[in-house]
Design a protein that fits this description.
Bound molecules: zinc ion
Number of strands: 10
Distance between the termini: 25 Å
Number of helices: 8
Strand order of the largest sheet: 1-6-7-5
Strand content: 15-25%
Order of helices and strands: HEHEEEEEEEHHHHHHEE
Shape: elongated
Length: about 300
Amino acid sequence: MPELPEVETVRAGLERHVVGRAIESVQVLHPRAVRRDLTGPDGFSAALKGRRPQSADRRGKYLWLAVGDGEALLAHLGMSGQMLLVPPQTPLSPHVRVRFTFADSGHDLRFTDQRTFGHLMLVPFAHGDVADGAVPGAAAGRLLPSPIAHIAPDPLEAAFDPADFAARLRRRRTGIKRALLDQSLISGIGNIYADEALWRARLHWARPTETLRRGEVSRLLDAVSEVLTSALAAGGTSFDSLYVNVNGESGYFSRSLEAYGRLGLPCGRCGMPIRRDSFMNRSSFSCPRCQPRPRSAHW
Ligand SMILES: [Zn+2]
């Protein structure tokens, strides 16, 4: 499943290879890919014809192209979405859901998604008053597509405010891992990177946020940034420059995981076998010695 570093890799690819090019045609090959677009496949295709993407942006796991007229082409890659740039004559693979061709006859952009959880939609940008609403820092000079105006900044964005995050975290009164996965508090962190960041910060996943000390919060934020940044570096180097790709397994996953998926394997710091707890129908991996269970906990 693509997480923030993979989505950022795709955003950078779109910025390099798609921004500035006039869209000649849009073919929706599977209606599920545009199921959230209110105008349907035909309306979606017609509205994008002739547009010229001006910028590629991201918040958390959402990415979008500003396409003029106050509108954005918003994308979520879901479980298996990929953006592929291929020569126009390349045969369509069975999982291509939307194909964009360009007036310059250069590479096509093909949204490919085996499991069809991802989607694309053409949406207006939120007005300032919406973006300025419940989430501090959400506006911060940025226009956000309206469906995601309520999503908090992610830790790699300039709009992310560590002091504001720390204050809101302590008020939340929940387990620290639940808080990390809460998109209205901080965006872009999935199950894998949450476990990795907590391992680095030596914090147990059920630790109540209201008991976190200032130093622990800043240790956690440093860990989150380190994990995301090193994953981004690994993902960013493994892609060919003309192949804007996402697969859930960037180089980072095979090389650098310290906790996630390592049940019974020795902790890289202390040698204790990594344990697994069930957590919200998924798993949490942690070190029993480096991340001791807290006296009080929000399971
Ligand atoms: Zn350990």
